[in-house]
Every structure is written in structure tokens, then in C-alpha cells.
Specification:
By secondary structure, this protein is of the alpha+beta class. It has five helices and four strands. It has one domain: Sufe protein. Chain: A (Alpha-Beta Complex). Strands 3-2-1-4 form a four-stranded mixed β-sheet, with helices on one face. Helix 1 crosses helix 2 and helix 2 packs parallel to helix 5. The radius of gyration is 15 Å and the shape is globular. Bound molecules: zinc ion.
Length: about 150
Amino acid sequence: MTSDADLRDLYQEVILDHSKRPRNYRKLEGANRKAEGYNPLCGDHFTVYVNLDGDRIREIGFEGSGCAISKASASMMTTSVAGKTTAEADALFEQVHRMLTGALNPAEHADTLGKLTVFSGVCEFPVRVKCASLPWHTLHAALADRAEPVTTE
Ligand code: ZN
């Protein structure tokens, strides 16, 4: 039997793990897409690198600095979209964004969101929504090949 409090602890553990040991935390040499994102409210600042093979994300990496939520979100974003097509990644971005703003019930989309549902509690903390969504907005800009930096303001 698992209580709600236990689940919250578990979620925090996943977030802590990814913030302490972010996956794909590296500059991708030979990346053909990249974008920079800022969240001035919190000071989160990341660059996302993508190596697109046709319309498929062959490799993805990121570097920068930010709070635990933004770093964990960036780390989990990279593991979630690696190997996906740009259309699939954008569809996931759409779902994550709706989850973070409380517009989507994560339980109904657990099959596509997977571990990303750990961020569903963030919608209760409006300031943190920007931290969690920044890496996704930055990915979106990289895939759209937008040159100007993304800002959450
Ligand atoms: Zn932050």
C-alpha cells in the first residue's frame, strides 16, 4: 500500500536524482540545431543541442545551470525525446505544457508521459511552472530552428 505522501517522496527522489546526475548533460559537438533558454524569474539558463537525422532526434544534450526543478526537467526532457521524431517531440511538449499548467490529467496520459508525470505537482506552484517548462520551450525553439533565445517572460 502506498500513501499519497509516499508517492510525493518518490517523485521528489526522481527529481533529485535527475538534478544531481543530469542525463545527456553535455555539449553536442556537431549538433545541427541548438537553442538557448532563460527563465529570468529564477535564473535558469540552458542551451539545448540537438542532432537531427532527417526529422528524427538522433542525439540530444544540454548544458547550463538552474534550480533542481529546471535541471531535472531538462534531464528528463532529453531522455524522453531522444529517438523521437520532431512531430512526436512537439506533441509531447504540448502534453507536458498542458500538464504543468494543470490543463491535463496526468493519469489519463500516463502511457505517453511516462516518468514525466513526476512534474504534475508543479502546477500547484506557479513560480515553478516556468522552471519545469523552460527546457521544453527551449527544445521547441531548437526544433523550429529559431535563432533568438527563448525567455519565459
Ligand atoms: Zn528554476
